[in-house]
Design brief:
The chain is α+β, with helices and mostly antiparallel strands. The chain is built from five helices and eight strands; from the N terminus they run ββαααβββαβαββ. An eight-stranded mixed beta sheet has the order 1-2-3-4-5-6-8-7.
């Protein structure tokens, strides 16, 4: 397991002036998920996890927060003033270190403020520096905000032939 990648810490400002601290996710961030998920609508959670999730137990959250930085990276976005969790974005490399699968969840009241866009650009930058050839993911057809953002960033978007409600996203780095 690689050590904590401090070089990926960032202080950024959203277009609305809110100060955001983005850094790699750590295991001790697990307690931040409760308030974050409570402020995220059931629909936004469904769009992220492709299912209705009513409860996020310790075992589930531990899997999200305990990363092997040799294979995966997750960035947490925190409000610089309050320390509240605002978003999380992750990229998991495949066994060949050829491609990485992404996922992003932004607190519902902060959608359309540019935070998801910043996090996706950070994931793409991370993937390039890590030497990945492709960033990819799956998005439900109803997740128009994610589809629009990925289209603007140059992702190839195709309907999944096995699962018609899912789009396969692919960006060659």
């Amino acid at each position: 397991m690689q050590s904590y990648p401090k070089e990926w810490e960032r202080h950024v400002t959203l277009p609305d002036g809110r100060g955001i601290y983005i850094r790699p996710l750590r295991p001790d961030d697990e307690p931040l998920y409760g308030a974050f998920l409570a402020a995220t609508t059931a629909e936004d959670i469904r769009l992220r996890f492709f299912a209705t999730v009513k409860e996020f137990g310790h075992a589930f959250l531990a899997r999200l927060t305990h990363l092997d930085h040799a294979r995966a990276m997750a960035f947490i976005a925190l409000d610089e003033t309050t320390g509240e969790m605002l978003a999380v974005a992750r990229l998991h490399a495949d066994a060949d270190n050829h491609s990485g699968e992404y996922a992003i969840l932004v607190r519902s009241d902060l959608k359309a403020h540019g935070l998801g866009w910043m996090l996706m650009q950070l994931l793409i930058d991370y993937g390039r520096r890590r030497g990945l050839a492709v960033v990819e993911g799956q998005v439900l057809h109803g997740n128009t905000a994610m589809l629009d953002m990925c289209r603007e960033l140059g992702f190839e978007i195709r309907s999944n032939p096995q699962e018609p409600e899912i789009c396969d996203m692919r960006l060659v780095l």
